[in-house]
Design a protein that fits this description.
It is a single chain. With 459 residues, the protein is α/β, with parallel strands linked by helices. It has 3 domains: 209 residues, FAD/NAD(P)-binding domain, CATH 3.50.50; 112 residues, 3-Layer(bba) Sandwich (FAD/NAD(P)-binding domain), CATH 3.50.50.60; 109 residues, FAD/NAD-linked reductase, C-terminal dimerisation domain (Enolase-like, domain 1). It is 29% helix and 25% strand. It is built from 12 helices and 24 strands. Strands 1, 2, 3, 4, 5, 6 and 19 form a 7-stranded mixed sheet that branches. The chain has a 5-stranded parallel sheet with strand order 8-15-9-10-11, with helices on one face. It has a 5-stranded antiparallel sheet with strand order 20-21-24-23-22, sandwiched between helices. The protein starts with a strand and ends with a helix. The structure holds 1,4-dihydronicotinamide adenine dinucleotide (NAI).
C-alpha cells in the first residue's frame, strides 16, 4: 500500500513525487515514456536549447553591431539537434536522480486505473496491481491536430511540436498553422536559420491572449526579419505541399511548405487509462465534450483521494502551473493547507526578443470591469538594455488599479524579460502597490530596473 500513486512523470507528476518523497510519503510514479514528460522531452527544454543555438548563430551573423565580425559564420543542423538531445538526456538523468533521492518507486509502464475500493485505489501496470491511498493524475496533453482534409495524404510533411524536434535538416520553407506560443517559437527558430516562414493564424493577431500592443510590436519585428503573417486567415485543408486557407475577404489561398507545423493548441489526455472506472467529473468544452479533469483549488476531484494536476485539468497548460498544482495536491494529501491561485501565473514566449507577462492584460481588466491605469516605458530607459541590445526594441507596461495603485499586470517585450518576470509575479502574488515597488532596491545596471523606472511614471 502506497500513500500516493502518480500517473505521469512530467513537471506535474515528477515535482509532486519529489515533494511527496521529501514529506516522507511512500510514492509510486508511473511513466510510459521518459521521465520529464512533454516539457523536458519534446517541449520547453528542447525548444529552448534549439532557440539558444539560433541566438548564438545570430550573434555571429550580426556581431558587427557590437564591433565583432565573424567570417563565414555557419551552423551545422545535425550538431544543433545533437546538442539538444544531449541537454534533454542530461536533464532526464537529473529527474531520475531526484526520484531516487526521494525514494520514489518509478514504474516505466503504461498505467491503468482499475478502480477504487475500501482498501484504496488500484492502478495496474507492468502486469501488477499497485494499491494507493491517494491518486494524482498528471497525464498531460498532446498536440491537437484537426482533421484537415488532405492531412493524411501530406504524410511526414505535417509535423507537430514533437516531430519537428527531430528533423535532420533545415527546411527551406515552412508553413506554421497557428500563430500561438509554439508557432511563434518555431517561427523564430527557423527564421533565424534562414528558412522562409509563413504563419497562418485565424485570429487578427498573433499570440491571442497576449497584450495587444506587445503582440503587434513582436509581429512587426518578425515581419521585418522576413516572416510572412497571414492573419484572420483560417486554415481549411492541405493540398499536397500547400496549406489552404481562407483570407479575410473569403478568398481561398494557398501557401507552400517543405514542412507544415500544426500548432493550433493542445488537448488534455483524459482517456485510455481507466479514468472512467472512478467516475471522475470532467470539465466540458463549449460543445459539451469532456476537455479536462474538473478540480477544486486544492486540486481535488469529486472522488475522495483522487487529485489531478497539470495540462490534464485542461486549464492553464503550462509546465510551471503543473508543478505548482502538483505541490498543492501533495500538500493537501499530506495534511498541509494549501490552495492553487492563478492570478500570478507568468507566461513567456521565447522568441528573440522575448515576451513575458503576468496578471491582467488591458483586455482582461476591461472584461472584468476593473478601473485601471497603464504606465509604460520603452526598454531603452534601462542602460543595461541599451548596452546589450543594439538597435533592439522593447517595452515595459504595468497595469495599475486606479484607486489603490495595486499592481494588476506586467507585460514586457525585450531580452531577457523571461528572467525578469518573476519579480512582477511576486509583486502581484503579494498584492504590492506601485508605491511599494518604488521602494524596492534593484541591482544596477540591470534590465529589470525598467520595472522600477516604469513605476515612477505613475502620476
Ligand atoms: P495556442 O493556443 O498558443 O495557439 C494556437 C493558435 O492556433 C491560436 O492562435 C489559434 O487562433 C490558432 N488556430 C487554431 N485553429 C486554426 C486554424 N484552423 N487556422 C489558423 N489558425 C488556427 O497553442 P500552441 O501554440 O499549439 O501551444 C499549445 C500549448 O502549449 C499552449 O497552451 C501553450 O501555453 C503551451 N506552450 C507554452 C510555451 C511557453 O510557455 N513558452 C511554449 C510552447 C507551448
Amino acid at each position: 500500500m502506497y500513500d500516493l500513486a502518480i500517473i505521469g512523470g512530467g513537471p506535474g507528476g515528477y515535482v509532486a513525487a519529489e515533494r511527496a518523497g521529501a514529506l516522507g510519503l511512500s510514492v509510486v510514479l508511473f511513466e510510459r515514456k521518459e521521465l520529464g514528460g512533454v516539457c523536458l522531452n519534446e517541449g520547453c527544454i528542447p525548444t529552448k536549447t534549439l532557440l539558444y543555438s539560433a541566438k548564438v548563430y545570430n550573434y555571429a551573423l550580426h556581431g558587427d553591431k557590437y564591433g565583432v565580425s565573424v567570417d563565414g559564420a555557419a551552423f551545422d543542423y545535425g550538431k544543433i539537434v545533437e546538442r539538444k538531445n544531449k541537454v534533454v538526456r542530461k536533464l532526464v538523468g537529473g529527474v531520475k536522480a531526484a526520484m531516487k533521492a526521494g525514494k520514489v518507486e518509478v514504474v516505466k509502464a503504461e498505467a491503468y486505473i482499475a478502480g477504487r475500493g475500501a482498501e484504496g485505489i488500484t492502478v495496474q501496470a507492468d502486469g501488477k496491481d499497485f494499491v494507493a491511498r491517494n491518486l494524482l493524475v498528471c497525464t498531460g496533453s498532446e498536440a491537437a491536430v484537426p482533421p484537415f482534409p488532405g492531412l493524411k495524404e501530406a504524410g511526414d510533411r505535417i509535423v507537430t511540436n514533437r516531430e519537428i524536434l527531430s528533423l535532420t535538416e533545415r527546411p527551406e520553407e515552412i508553413v506554421v498553422i497557428g500563430g500561438g506560443v509554439i508557432g511563434m517559437e518555431f517561427a523564430s527558430f527557423f527564421n533565424s536559420l534562414g528558412t522562409k516562414v509563413t504563419v497562418v493564424e485565424m485570429l487578427p493577431k498573433i499570440l491571442g491572449p497576449l497584450d495587444d500592443e506587445i503582440s503587434a510590436m513582436l509581429q512587426a519585428i518578425y515581419a521585418k526579419k522576413g516572416v510572412v503573417f497571414n492573419l484572420s486567415c483560417k486554415v481549411t485543408g492541405i493540398e499536397g505541399d500547400c496549406v489552404v486557407y481562407e483570407d479575410p475577404q473569403g478568398q481561398v489561398c494557398k501557401v507552400r511548405g517543405d514542412k507544415i507545423l500544426v500548432s493550433v493548441g493542445r488537448r488534455a489526455n483524459i482517456s485510455g487509462f481507466g479514468l472512467e472506472n472512478l467516475g471522475v467529473d470532467m470539465l466540458l468544452n463549449r460543445g459539451g465534450k469532456p476537455c479536462g479533469i474538473k478540480v477544486d483549488e486544492k486540486m481535488r476531484t469529486n472522488i475522495p483521494g483522487v487529485y489531478a494536476a497539470g495540462d490534464v485539468t485542461g486549464f492553464s497548460m503550462l509546465a510551471h502551473t503543473a508543478s505548482r498544482e502538483g505541490e498543492v495536491a501533495v500538500n493537501n494529501i499530506a495534511g498541509k493547507p494549501d490552495r492553487m491561485r492563478y492570478d500570478a501565473i507568468p507566461g513567456v514566449v521565447y522568441t528573440n526578443p522575448e515576451v513575458a507577462g503576468v496578471g491582467l492584460t488591458e483586455a482582461d481588466a476591461k472584461q472584468k470591469g476593473i478601473d485601471y491605469t497603464v504606465i509604460k516605458l520603452p526598454m531603452a530607459y534601462s542602460g543595461r538594455f541599451v548596452a546589450e541590445n543594439e538597435g533592439g526594441e522593447g517595452i515595459c507596461k504595468i497595469l495599475v488599479g486606479k484607486k489603490y495603485h495595486e499592481v494588476l499586470g506586467v507585460h514586457l517585450l525585450g531580452n531577457p524579460c523571461s528572467e525578469m518576470i518573476h519579480g512582477a509575479c511576486i509583486a502581484i502574488e503579494q498584492e504590492m502597490t506601485v508605491e511599494q515597488l518604488k521602494e524596492v532596491v534593484f541591482p544596477h545596471p540591470t534590465v529589470s530596473e525598467i520595472l522600477k523606472e516604469t513605476a515612477f511614471t505613475l502620476k
